């Protein structure tokens, strides 16, 4: 290595170290505010806990656990509306979390805020989260595509034994997968749009 390459290498290494150090410091600082919020909540200092959780959200974004803790803090502060909003946001991020669901139901019941009766299709959409609906739709669309390609693949591979059986099974599989895709795709789209 000549002298010029060494200088460039040193500058690049220095820049990389600066980025790593500042990134680690920012990450640990936001984790510290989250832990400080947890400690304040344990002490019963709910305004400080809420401030620390909001600061953590501003620095590193939200997560289901952060929103859950923030909602619990708002509940203790008597801020019912903000608590329900935080619980619902946490539930959108972690759709299957039973603690979030039960706390949300309790706070609604205590304050007489029952959910209005929803149509069947909306209850159907609420069975899974938007990511789960999208994964299900994608999986069955893939199965549908594979079912359509199976007969031509059988011709390409020159499979003569039980060719009719393979084609029949592939067609039935493709038809069933198409029906399931048609049933799950609107739910995925609606769930994603309502999440945004």
Instruction: Write down the oligomeric state.
Output: single chain
The proportion of residues forming helix, as a percent range, comes to over 70%
CATH superfamily descriptor of the largest domain? Tetratricopeptide repeat domain
* Sequence stretches where pLDDT stays below 50 over 5 or more residues: 24-28
Give the topology string: H per helix, E per strand.
Answer: HHHHHHHH
**What is the level-2 CATH architecture name of the largest domain?**
Alpha Horseshoe
Structural overview:
With 196 residues, this protein is mainly alpha-helical. The chain has 2 domains: 3-115, Tetratricopeptide repeat domain (Serine Threonine Protein Phosphatase 5, Tetratricopeptide repeat, Alpha Horseshoe), CATH 1.25.40.10; 123-195. 83% of the residues lie in helices and 0% in strands. It contains 8 helices and no strands. It has helices spanning 3-43, 46-60, 64-77, 80-93, 98-110, 120-125, 130-156, 163-195. Helix 2 packs antiparallel against helix 3 and helix 4 packs antiparallel against helix 5. The longest helix has 41 residues, at 3-43. It is flat and about 75 Å long. The model is unreliable at 24-28 (pLDDT under 50).
Gist?
This protein has helices at 3-43, 46-60, 64-77, 80-93, 98-110, 120-125, 130-156, 163-195. By secondary structure, the chain is mainly α. The longest helix has 41 residues, at 3-43.
What's the helix and strand layout?
Layout (H helix, E strand, L loop, with lengths): L2 H41 L2 H15 L3 H14 L2 H14 L4 H13 L9 H6 L4 H27 L6 H33 L1
Helix pairs in contact: 1-2, 2-3, 3-4, 4-5, 7-8
């Amino acid at each position: 290595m000549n002298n010029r390459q060494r200088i460039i290498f040193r500058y690049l290494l220095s820049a990389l170290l600066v980025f790593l150090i500042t990134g680690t410091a920012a990450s640990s600082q936001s984790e510290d505010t989250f832990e400080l919020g947890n400690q304040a909540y344990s002490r019963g200092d709910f305004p400080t806990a809420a401030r620390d959780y909001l600061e953590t959200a501003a620095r590193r974004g939200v997560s289901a656990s952060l929103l859950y803790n923030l909602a619990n803090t708002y509940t203790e502060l008597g801020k019912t509306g903000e608590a329900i909003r935080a619980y619902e946001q946490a539930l959108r991020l972690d759709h299957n979390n039973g603690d979030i669901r039960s706390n949300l139901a309790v706070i609604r019941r205590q304050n007489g805020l029952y959910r209005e009766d929803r149509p069947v299709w909306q209850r159907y959409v609420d069975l899974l989260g938007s990511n789960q609906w999208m994964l299900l739709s994608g999986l069955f669309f893939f199965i549908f595509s594979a079912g359509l390609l199976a007969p031509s693949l059988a011709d390409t591979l020159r499979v003569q034994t039980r060719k009719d059986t393979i084609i029949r099974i592939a067609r039935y599989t493709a038809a069933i997968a198409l029906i399931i895709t048609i049933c799950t795709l609107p739910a995925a789209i609606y769930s994603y749009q309502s999440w945004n």
